[in-house]
Design goal:
It holds the Pfam family PEP-utilizers. GO terms for molecular function: transferase activity, transferring phosphorus-containing groups. It comes from Georgenia thermotolerans. It is a single chain. The protein has about 625 residues and is α+β, with helices and mostly antiparallel strands. It has 21 helices and twelve strands. The protein has an eight-stranded mixed sheet with strand order 5-12-11-7-8-9-10-6. A four-stranded antiparallel sheet has the order 2-3-1-4. A hairpin with a 2-residue loop joins strand 2 and strand 3. The longest helix has about 50 residues. The chain is globular, with a radius of gyration of 25 Å.
Length: about 625
């Protein structure tokens, strides 16, 4: 199957954007396509992981691609031995991260792995609560350990204690040791990440497949609603914003928190009254740990947390406060979701034989047990751990600026982790000898070159896929998390010319809505979203929940039924179509579309973006009535 009409471009056919020539030199060799691996690469199907890297990544930020896919590969292939899936191979192409599911097809090998998987996964499923509790303790310890890493400036002379305590070694050596600790502990955290995630998906997928076999006409949406209404940690930050908004209204502070002023002005105004100071006390109490929460997924050094950019949570609070003051109910419809869940479960259970019903009970119970981890692990890893990791990277950048090696703080991120290791040794070694760092001019020239390359890479969109599509996409991660299904791949191939007025994706969350779209390329664009607009983005993060207070619907380029965008939209009752592949490049802010969250379609209703203010979106009932 090499006909270009039935495949995507190969890596060696991908031309770099103008100004990005030579981009390959920025990344570790094994992340970049090469002549010696071309045969393997051209035989595979690769799709863009724009869920985690929505833009071309800086050289240092590619460490995430290494850690993530080392983790998923280790636990899929070597530890739990998933029967039909190995790991996900990974490459960086024109700055974007691409991954390729590797499947097991030999029946004898599948059977051999299945025996291992049943034994090993069965142990975790049988002891889930205890082991999950131990996992949380491990993660808390790992985050605490990251916090102890320090990069103090290089002094003119080592402290006297090196002599008086006969330490026998320079304190500067700790700088190199701590850098290695930072890298090693980041990789360890990503091992922990996949200790439970594969099993979480596996438990849900087993239940999903049982339902598909037992009820041939059941929809993916109906199956997902059988585990809805579960309380998970991922909703807690947004719940804190809702609570603070309600408190502001109760204390008569609505006008202050909705004034739209800069954070320092808003907080200053609140300090001027007893009610404001009472509210600020609650605000400060919520910040740790709930504002240690990235606006996206925390995979790049330049993302802000709510704590580092208070305008993000304050805008969410303002939106919620305005709704409460207008008499709206902003609570998540948990009770309704649970009632619907129980009703659906009972309805389908009644269709089964006694033995089938017993198996159904076990599987729906397992799915409900493992489901929280699918969302909660993000709080510990992508938010709390990544927040500390990037803080420490910035501290190291400050050290290198103070040492005169870098000119700007963000120079550090234009080196990959191996290059940074050599540069750091150069700085410490030169300091020890008493000479200027040998590589200062070399790296300043190279960083200047790479700045232009990264800018060019980030200005270009990522093609959704490369290579030869499989006859059937079966990898559970690809299907459930990324929304890369057989149908989606066919849509991507068939709609590459951009001539269609309908985008097809996955049915992320039920409902039909018409309205004007707001295309957001990153979390930095969130303040532009206006009430009643339909949010269009490469992917939405759980931390975008406050934006859902004003969005009428959601459309994403990537994502499947169990991606965070779909889960959050279902919990908040917002129509969503995920995994369209091209929404951010096909749609223009101001265009009117119809989002059908059940069918998984987005229909363009007009081609010319309107200039006037957003008009209210129309819901399912209004459209049909």
């Amino acid at each position: 199957m090499t006909d270009t009409a039935r495949r995507f471009a190969f890596f060696d056919e991908a031309e770099p954007p103008a100004g990005a020539e030579g981009w390959e030199s920025m990344y570790p060799y094994y992340l970049v396509p090469s002549e010696e691996t071309r045969e393997h690469e051209n035989a595979q199907f690769w799709f863009a992981d724009t869920m985690h890297w929505s833009r071309g990544c800086h050289p240092f930020d590619s460490i995430g691609a290494e850690a993530v896919y080392l983790g998923v590969g280790t636990f899929s292939t070597r530890i739990f031995a998933l029967p039909v899936s190995l790991g996900l191979d990974v490459r960086v192409v024109n700055g974007y991260v691409y991954i390729s599911p590797l499947n097991v097809t030999d029946p004898a090998e599948i059977q051999r792995r299945a025996a291992l998987f049943q034994d090993r996964a069965g142990y975790y499923y049988a002891n889930w609560d205890e082991l999950y509790g131990r996992w949380k303790t491990k993660m808390e310890g790992a985050i605490a350990s990251l916090r102890t890493i320090t990069f103090p400036p290089l002094p003119e002379f080592d402290p006297a204690e090196v002599v008086t305590e006969a330490r026998g070694r320079s304190t500067a050596l700790a700088i190199i040791e701590n850098y290695h600790r930072l890298i090693d502990e980041f990789f360890a955290i990503w091992q922990y990440h996949f200790e439970f995630l594969n099993l979480g998906y596996g438990g849900y997928i087993t239940f999903f497949q049982f339902c598909k076999n037992a009820f041939p006409l059941i929809t993916d949406q109906t199956i997902s609603r059988m585990v809805a209404g579960v309380e998970v940690l991922a909703f807690r930050p947004d719940d804190e914003l809702r609570r603070l908004a309600a408190l502001a209204v109760d204390l008569g502070l609505t006008a202050v928190v909705t004034a739209g002023t800069a954070p320092e002005e808003t907080l200053g105004a609140l300090r001027g009254s007893a009610e404001g100071r009472q509210w600020l006390e609650a605000f400060e109490a919520a910040k740790t740990p709930w504002f240690n929460y990235f606006s996206e997924y925390g995979f790049t050094h330049d993302q802000q947390t709510w704590a580092s950019d208070l305008s993000i949570p304050l805008q969410g609070i303002a939106r919620y406060a305005a709704k409460i003051a207008a008499g709206e109910d902003i609570s998540r419809p948990v009770e309704r979701l649970r009632a619907e869940r129980d009703e659906i479960v009972a309805e389908y259970r009644a269709l089964l034989t006694e033995d089938e019903a017993k198996q159904f009970d076990e599987l729906v119970g397992l799915a409900g047990k493992v489901f929280p981890y699918i969302e909660e692990h993000n709080i510990y890893v992508e938010h709390w751990a990544h927040d500390v990791f990037w803080q420490k990277a910035w501290e190291l950048a400050d050290l290198l600026v103070a040492a005169g090696f870098f000119e700007q703080r963000d120079d550090l991120f234009y080196l990959n982790r191996f290059e940074l290791d050599t540069a750091l040794f150069d700085v410490v070694d030169s300091w020890a000898i008493g000479v200027p760092a040998r590589g200062k001019q070399r790296w300043q020239k190279e960083i200047a070159r790479r700045r232009g390359i990264v800018a060019a890479l980030q200005a270009a969109p990522a093609p959704p896929a490369f290579g030869i599509p499989p006859e059937q996409v079966t990898d559970p991660f690809a299907v459930m998390n990324y929304g890369v299904t057989t149908e989606r791949v066919a849509d991507w191939l068939g709609s590459g010319d951009g001539g269609t007025t309908t985008l097809t994706g996955g049915p992320g969350s039920l409902g039909v809505v018409e309205g004007k779209v707001r295309v957001l390329k990153s979390e930095n664009d969130l303040p532009e979203l206006q009430p009643g607009e339909i949010l269009v983005a490469p992917i939405t993060a759980p931390s975008w929940a406050p934006a859902f207070a004003v969005a009428a619907g959601v459309i994403t380029d990537i994502g499947g039924m169990m991606c965070h965008a779909a889960i959050v939209c279902r919990e908040y009752g917002i129509p969503a179509v995920v995994g369209t592949g091209f929404a951010t490049t096909r749609l223009t802010t101001g265009q009117r579309v119809r989002v059908d969250g059940k069918a998984g379609t987005v229909t363009v209703l007009d081609e010319a973006p309107a200039a006037e203010a957003p008009e209210p979106a129309r819901t399912t009932e209004e459209i049909s009535g």
